[in-house]
Backbone:
């Protein structure tokens, strides 16, 4: 089996897999770029199967074990990214072509986010946030800018909220939260150690957690409601353009639109 055919082979195999093996396959197909970072224990835990079941699944795909499967999956994803990226031209491209490529990459990032999106999770997140007395919004680095934007969106709905991009301020605010409060965490990678530690503090305080983060990531695992956005997997030669942040921004708009539809008139600050 060629590397580039691996994902297609997993999809074709769904009908002949056992229910437990199918859970592994579907979990990997949902977030293949996250799966290449997993250990066999992570794969078993996230798919809710045993480690021997993970090994049997790998052997069905002609891999000796999970490390060999993970390597083949990484190679398959690299081939797909290479095929999607046009070869560099020796001569400079017209400015309009560059601009069109930027817009095309942004559309692709949004389309991938929509394909990953679980509407039920989005609805649960909107209900949880609307029920909160106040919302602390945590982001770090590039996600901090989106956290600030979320505060503006919530303010327009009359919801008391504060955004914190500084991990020290997050650490100070988290222990002051109560069961009536919520934390809305936004993370491109889902693995930022500062953010994880502060979310654990907020959970100990009793606050409910909503996260926009990659499926299966530590941040998503900590959340009461996780909105899976696997924006970290999107790459392009315009590495300085935050295409991943574009998709997270659109998902934020979807969350606030659902909140607005459930509470059409601005809520009074409590």
Residues:
């Amino acid at each position: 089996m060629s590397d580039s055919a691996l994902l297609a082979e997993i999809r074709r195999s769904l009908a002949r897999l056992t229910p437990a093996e199918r859970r592994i396959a579907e979990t990997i197909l949902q977030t293949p770029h996250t799966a290449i970072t997993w250990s066999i224990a992570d794969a078993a835990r996230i798919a809710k199967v045993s480690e021997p079941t993970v090994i049997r699944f790998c052997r069905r795909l002609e891999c000796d074990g999970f490390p060999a499967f993970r390597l083949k999956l990484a190679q398959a994803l690299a081939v797909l990214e290479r095929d999607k990226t046009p070869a560099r031209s020796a001569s400079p491209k017209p400015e309009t072509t560059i601009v069109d490529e930027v817009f095309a990459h942004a559309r692709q990032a949004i389309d991938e986010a929509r394909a990953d999106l679980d509407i039920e999770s989005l609805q649960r997140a909107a209900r949880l946030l609307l029920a909160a007395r106040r919302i602390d919004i945590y982001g770090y680095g590039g996600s901090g800018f989106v956290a600030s934007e979320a505060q503006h969106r919530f303010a327009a709905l009359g919801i008391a909220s504060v955004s914190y991009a500084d991990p020290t301020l997050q650490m100070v605010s988290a222990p002051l939260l109560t069961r009536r409060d919520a934390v809305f965490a936004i993370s491109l990678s889902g693995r930022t150690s500062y953010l994880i530690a502060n979310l654990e503090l907020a959970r100990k305080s009793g606050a409910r957690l909503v996260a926009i983060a990659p499926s299966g990531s530590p941040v998503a695992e900590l959340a009461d409601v996780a909105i899976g956005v696997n924006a970290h997997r999107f790459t392009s030669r315009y590495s300085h353009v935050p295409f991943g942040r574009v998709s997270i921004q659109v998902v934020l708009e979807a969350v606030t639109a659902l909140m607005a539809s459930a509470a059409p008139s601005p809520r009074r600050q409590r």
